[in-house]
Each structure stands twice: as structure tokens, then as C-alpha cells.
Amino acid sequence: MSNDNERLWDGRFAEATDAFVEAFTASVSFDQQLAQFDIEGSIAHATMLGRCGIIAEDTATAIVDGLRGIGADIAAGNFVWSQHLEDVHMNIEAALTDRIGEQGKALHTGRSRNDQVATDVRMYLRHHVDQILSQVTHLQQGLLQLASQHVHTIMPGFTHLQVAQPVVFGHHLMAWYEMLSRDKERLVDCRKRVNVLPLGAAALAGTSFPIDRLLVAELLHFDRVAENSLDAVSDRDFAIEFSSAASLIMMHLSRWSEELILWASPQFGFVNLPDRYCTGSSIMPQKKNPDVPELVRGKSARVFGGLITLLTLMKGQPLAYNKDNQEDKEPLIDIIRTLEDTLTAFGDMIPNIEANPEAMRSAAAKGFATATDLADYLVRKGCAFRDAHHRVGRLVALAESRKVDLSELSLEDFQRESPEIESDVYQSLTLEGSVAARNHLGGTAPETVQAAIERAQRQSP
Ligand code: ARG
Which of 60, 337, 338, 378 could anchor a disulfide with 388, C-beta 3.0 to 4.6 Å? Predict the structure, then answer.
């Protein structure tokens, strides 16, 4: 650089920036993560300027070559970032002029950092949305793999965390699968609004040069160009929308985590988490703690926090660009890293969960889980459901007083309460009979769950 203290915008300033203010306003420590996208965006912009005759073709070529060289240096870790140059954009532009000389100064023609940063953030986010989509798909495949091993594994289904009715474990896992399918739909939908090109809006009002925005959109694989320059530079609702989709994924994974933590406890004993996903205690030698699910449950909090940060960041901003927007990057980067790390952990852990069918079965057998089946049986014998419910309630009380299960009551016990009960009642009281009876679309019968798994396998990319 010709003069180390020169800044790209300091023509109108009479004194140097205060050292603290320089540090306070700089963003390069975090926005350098956008470098690859900043370079791609600049290459497309320079190419367009050359093709439209706004800058000389040989200047455009020199700029593109220079930017590629800088991109390679950054990728190789050979680039020195300077806080004095404030942000990723000015670091790269200054390096370009250092590298190729005067021609580098033409790059910023017809452009502002305002439309540049909005473009960079959208490209960065688009890249990560695609990454997250493939991670979610991978996790779904892991779920399908585990679910298909447990189509006949009976466990208690819960409401209010009390044993409610028997279900098969595969059905429970497919409930998780459904959550992820909706999460994917939200990401795909949000991507449409992420993939809109702001470049060309310049600072806020557009530019006096005869630019070709459609060409830039095509070079950078954007679906559309932003229709209004003021909106293009200032809006960050696409990032908020993504963060809300990310929050919903973390909320889902946090719920799964809570279940895994409960199930892995000795009191439930339904599952064993792989040792490599757990840690021990420094004092209690017997402990195997489910750290990964616990941490995921905790990390959901910081993703929700990022969403609230972004919403709050936007809500008071008048049009168009304000420096407030520089604060969008850290939460967004943190949300993405947290979500990707979580999906990496779950993608490996889920298919390696070891179920304990005996513990699941005995928990289901203990909680009068087939009481609804007995009421349904009475309805089939001509009793109104509300009366059937009452009689079964009395039979449950009887069984409870004797500390036995419903299936251990004698036929005489049943008939004393309800004369229409016959010996075929015992069939309705079995766990297998209970799940098998729920064989309509969406039910927990093994054949239905098997069909749901096969349907998902066919749809899965
Ligand atoms: N670092 C800034 C940001 O992240 C880049 C845009 C700055 N524009 C400006 N006019 N100061 O938003």
C-alpha cells in the first residue's frame, strides 16, 4: 500500500479516526468469513462492468485475475487482515490495488459496500442453507435406518409423561422424521427469498452507470434481482426468516435431546447412547452423562437468542442502509455454526442409538397402557364409549388395588363389572393387539409404520 494510514474513504476527513473508534467500528475480525463470497461477487461485478463498456475490458480482466489470486491467498492462509481497513470489502479492495496497481481502483465503480455486503451475506447464507439441507437429509436417513429396525419394538407412548398407550419405537422415530420434513420445507421456502440479488442498488438509489443486473444475477446464480434499491440494501428479513427456520430445527432437536436424556437414565433405561457421545464425572466413577443431547438442548437457547437479536436489530431502522446492519453477521454466523455442529453430532449419534426393547416393553406393560383398548372392546360389544370409559376406570382401580395388570384379572372380575365381556377380551389387552389395531394411516400398527418408512425411503432424495 502506498500509505499505510490512507483509508479508502478518507478524502473529506481532516483528522485520523480515533484509535478506539477504529476498533469499535471494524468488522473484519468476523466478516472475513464472507471473503470467498465477496470475491465471487466482485468478479461478477467487474465482468459486468467490462462487458457493458463501463470499464475497459483489459481492466476488467486484470481485476478478475487479481481477485482470483487474492482468493487463493486467503484460502491458503496467506492473507494479512488489517483492522485499519475496517471490513472484508475494503481489505480485499486495497489488496487488489496493491497487487495490480491503478486498474484495481476501477472495481468499485457503480457499486457501494451497502449492496456489496447484502450480496455477500445472501451468498454466504445460500451456501449454508444448502449445506444444512443436506445434513438434515442425512439425519433423516439415519432415523429411517433406526426406525426400520424397530417396527415391532413396543414401548409406552406418553401423554403428560405418564404411560398412555403402547406404540412401536419405529413410530416414535418417524414422528421425529416428520418434524425434520417440515423443517426442510421451511428451509427450501426461505431459500427462494434469500436468493435475490441486491447488487446494483449501490448505496441506496441505484447508479448512474448503465449496469446489467440480470447478467450479474446469472453469473452469481441468483434467481431474481431485488426490485427496489432502498429495500435491497437495507432489508435483512431473509436472515431473520432463516434464523427462525433454524430455531425451529433446534427446538425439535432440543425436544429429542430431552427424550434421549430421559430414556438414557437408569430409571427409564430405554436406550444406550454410544460411549463416544457421553462423558464421565470427575468424582462419581459410575456416571455416563449424555453430554451431547444436554448440550444440544442448551445450544438451542443461543440460536433463539440470535433470532431475537436479528429481529431487534431491524425493528427501529429507517430506510435505507444503517451501520446497525453490521451487527447481523455475528448472530447469523453463530446460528449457522451451532446448527451445523448439532446436525453433525446428531447425524452420527442417531443411527447408533442402541434400544433396549425389554425395558421399553416392561414399562408399557406396567402402566395400564391397554385400558383404552378395553374401553374400545366394550364399545364394540354395544356399550356407549362414556359408559365403557367409566367401567374400565373401575376395573383399573380394582387391578391397581391388587397390584396386578388388567390382563391378570379373571373373566369373572371382568363380567362382574360388565357382563358383555367374554374370553376374547384378553386379545384386546395384549400390547401387540393394541398396536396392531391402530392400522389406519398415521397409526402405530407395525404394518402401518413399515409402510410409512417405505414411503419416506421412496421420497427421500
Ligand atoms: N461492514 C459493513 C456491514 O457489515 C459494510 C457496509 C458498510 N457500509 C457503510 N456505508 N458504512 O454492514
Answer: 378
